[in-house]
Description:
Elements: H1 3-16, H2 57-70, H3 73-82, H4 88-99, H5 103-116, H6 125-189
Amino acid sequence: MTARPWLLCLATALLAGCQYLPEQLQLPSGPSSPQSPSNGSALCHAELPDFDNAPCLLHDWVAFGLASQRGDRVWREATLTRLGGESAERRLARAMLLAWGDRRQWNRASELYKADLHAAPSDLQPLLRYWLNELEGRRRLAGQLAESRGEHQAAVEENAALTEELEALAEKLEQLTAIEQSINLRQQNE
């Protein structure tokens, strides 16, 4: 009686296949080496991206870019302190972090991207250029927004000044009308 449930579970596991096993437990099949990323890049999981692991280069940088985008200010600051050094890969990783920070950091991110983009591996350069262009687009839109807000504020201030001037002129007109009526009454009484 107890063998029947075990046989049923075993048969189900065999028929279900290996897709339910974790990726790290699966052995690579065929000529692919354990170093190359496979099915979701299970072997590519660098916390801080670098230029050393060529098979995982794009995966590590994209993963770090997404983490930078999704991370909060505290995570970015903590990671920024870990990215010390003046190597091109560290400076580009800092640029990525700064690009997703607040607007005051965008200029520094742009400078870092432009200064070290040429030092990146050729496979990574299109991705970094894309991120630089995206950052420049955000900077341009932020500039346009600030400019339109400034124009709006100037229009509001001009409108307030014109309203005050209109009210002052209306008051003067009332005073002149009162003076005119007073003169007309005197002339009628004489």
